[in-house]
Amino acid sequence: MAKFDATMRREYEELFAGCRTADDHIGEVTKMVERIVSEQIRYRAVAAMTDIPWWFIGLLHSLESSCSFTTHLHNGDPLTARTVHIPKGRPPIWDPPNDWESSAVDSLKYQGFVDLKDWSLAAVLYRLEVYNGFGYRAHGIFSPYLWSYSQHYKKGKYVWDGKWDPNAVSRQCGAAVLLRHMVDAFVVRFPTPARVEGWRDAGASGGE
Questions:
Q1: What is the SS3 assignment for 65?
Q2: What residue spans of 111-197 are helical by DSSP H?
Q3: Which residues of 185-196 are buried (b: 16+ CB within 10 A; e: fewer)?
Q4: Which residue, 32, 41, 139, 184, is most buried by CB atoms nearer than 10 A?
C-alpha cells in the first residue's frame, strides 16, 4: 500500500483542483450524483454507525454496485450470500442479518475506516484508492476508480481480479470525478488547500 505522506497529499489535491469531466460524460455524472444524494437517508444511517461521511459511503456504493441496495458494498456481490469475490466470505456472520446496512458497516470496518478523524480531501481520495487498491500505480496510470471520465485517465484496467488489460477502458465514473461535481454543487464542503493553485473555493470546512 502506498504511504499517505505529504507528497501523496499534494498529488491528490492538485489532481482534484485540475479535474475536469469529459464533455460527453457530464450528463451521466450529474445523474449519478443526483442518485447518490437521493439515497442519502440510507447512507446517513450507516454514517451514524461508523462516523464516516454519508457521501463517502455513497461514492463507494456508486463504484461497487451503481447504488444497488441488493448487493454488498464490499464488491457488488449479491446480498443473498456472503461475498465470493475479493474480499471473500464477508460479512463473517450472515443470514441473519442480511440487510445492506449491516453489510456496509462490515465493509467499512474491514477496511479500517471506522472512527477515523481525518476526512480532509486528500485523506478521502487516499481511502477511495485504498478501497480499490494501488495496482494501477505499478502501470504508471492514475486509477480509474478515482479519475475515470476525467482528463487524468485514458485507458488501462483490471478487467477482473488480478487480470490487467492495457487497452481496456473503464465505463464507470470515477469517485473523485463524482466528488468534484458534489463539491462544485456545494453538496460536500472542504477547506480550501491554500497551497494548491487553481482550487475553486468550495466553502466552509468539513464534509457535511
A1: helix
A2: 121-132, 144-147, 175-184
A3: eebbbbebbeeb
A4: 32
